[in-house]
Write a structure and sequence with these properties.
By secondary structure, this protein is mainly α. It has helices at residues 3-20, 30-33, 41-51, 58-64, 69-80, 84-102, 107-114, 119-130, 134-141. It starts with a helix and ends with a helix.
C-alpha cells in the first residue's frame, strides 16, 4: 500500500471517528461549560463535506450555522485538531485522490472539480500532504518514474 492510500484511509478513519465520537469533555466541570453549537460538530462536518466543491470560506460556513467566524474557527480547531481550511482541503484532497486513481481526467479538471481555486493551489496542497505532486503520483500509479 503506497503512502497516499494510507493517508486516504487515515482521513476516512478520522472522519468516522469524528462523526461518531465527536463529544469531547475532559473534566466534569467542562459539562457545564460545553459549547452548545459544537454539539452540532457532526452537522458542521457533513456541511463541509457536502459543499467542499464550492468556494467555501470560514465566514460562509460560520454564517450558515449562525456563528461568528472567529468563534467558529477557534472551536473547530479545538475540537478537530485542524483549522477549518485545513480540514476542507483534506476533504477535497480525498476526493482528488480518488479521481487521480480511478480516472484519466486532467489535473486541472480534477482540481476544479473538487473545489480548489486553481491548479497551483491544488498541486501545492497535494504535495504538502502526500509528499508528491499529483502528476508524479499519477506517473507512479501507471508504473512510470
Amino acid at each position: 500500500m503506497d503512502e497516499i492510500s494510507k493517508t486516504s484511509q487515515i482521513l476516512q478513519i478520522l472522519y468516522l471517528l469524528t462523526k461518531n465520537f465527536s463529544s469531547i469533555v475532559t473534566t466534569p466541570n467542562d459539562l457545564a461549560t460545553t459549547d452548545k453549537p459544537f454539539e452540532r460538530l457532526d452537522e458542521i462536518i457533513m456541511f463541509i463535506q457536502e459543499h467542499a466543491k464550492e468556494a467555501l470560506t470560514v465566514t460562509k460556513i460560520a454564517d450558515h450555522f449562525n456563528l461568528s467566524a472567529s468563534y467558529f474557527s477557534r472551536n473547530f480547531k479545538y475540537y478537530m485538531g485542524n483549522s477549518v481550511i485545513e480540514y476542507l482541503n483534506l476533504v477535497r484532497l480525498h476526493e482528488a485522490y480518488q479521481l487521480l486513481t480511478n480516472t484519466k481526467k486532467p489535473i486541472l479538471v480534477i482540481s476544479t472539480q473538487v473545489g480548489f481555486p486553481n491548479e497551483k493551489a491544488f498541486t501545492r496542497t497535494f504535495k504538502r500532504i502526500y509528499k508528491v505532486t499529483p502528476t508524479d503520483y499519477r506517473k507512479r500509479l501507471n508504473g512510470k518514474k
